[in-house]
């Protein structure tokens, strides 16, 4: 465990030292190259604003008005039939649309049930195994001005579903319910 | 599809508020969302500026080409329509490596850089190419070896064994990424048919 956290702690600083050092060795003017590349970052971020604002407004309206709660209630019989843990259902729906929202929900699980409970382990596995599909799509495609995303969103959402089901199966198998 | 999801979220939100007779929630929520969107973009500025600078050094030093060459077989398999020595491959490979090691902050700028390179190969700049969809599929399902955020959060909440979720997360992330790759392939083939 400790060595794993150490690896992730060391990885970034190591990269920060290695890249410029290697480049300097290859006679690259490191600082000038950095500044040259870095100036592209700003317009890219600005380009994403309209896309992200549009998406965040819809997600926020969907969540805060209770529409999300309503659909959760509507789908309730479905979970009961397959015995999917009820507390994990909001997470499954939140995960693809809001990274901050699903993280907040997980914290509430940790607080209520403790981090070592079955439901918290399931939640952490679900959260860690995929990324926020809607956000990734908005940022990546928004940055280059793509309007027509073809089938990308379908693939992303179905992969999320597969990740959720796999989390549920493996956590049940490893930790028991 | 994105159009429908967007419309669905907005309209069901407005209807839900109307049914509760509290229309002011909608206005507040919309403004809050807009604020969040801008805030996230401003947060992205520092990350993008910093990492695009680092990536330029790596590119000038020939590190990206080297990385792309080492992992070329995998990249060629997933991105058959990207020319062999195209710079996009270097960024794609670094994006995937950053995801793998849980460096989310670094993965995004690299992924965006890869998208920009793929956009140069795109005959219609408003519409995504299959290669872009594959890159997106890999990022939404995000293959991770160490779920750093979750382990950190579990430690913060006093877990006795914060690391036990590593195994289950690796299993689940492999399933979702595999599903993404298979589906992406299937849709890509249907598009070409």
From TrEMBL, chain A:
Keywords: Membrane, Transmembrane, Transmembrane helix. InterPro entries: Gate_dom, SpmB. Pfam families: Gate. The chain crosses the membrane at residues 42-62, 155-175. One of its GO terms (cellular component) is plasma membrane. It comes from the Bacteria. Residues 46-146 form the Nucleoside transporter/FeoB GTPase Gate domain. This is Spore maturation protein B.
UniProtKB/TrEMBL annotation, chain B:
InterPro entries: Gate_dom (IPR011642). This is Nucleoside recognition protein. It comes from the Bacteria. Keywords: Membrane, Transmembrane, Transmembrane helix. Residues 42-151 form the Nucleoside transporter/FeoB GTPase Gate domain. It holds the Pfam family Gate. The chain crosses the membrane at residues 6-31, 38-58, 128-152, 164-183. The lineage of its organism: Bacteria, Bacillati, Bacillota, Bacilli, Bacillales. It comes from Marinithermofilum abyssi.
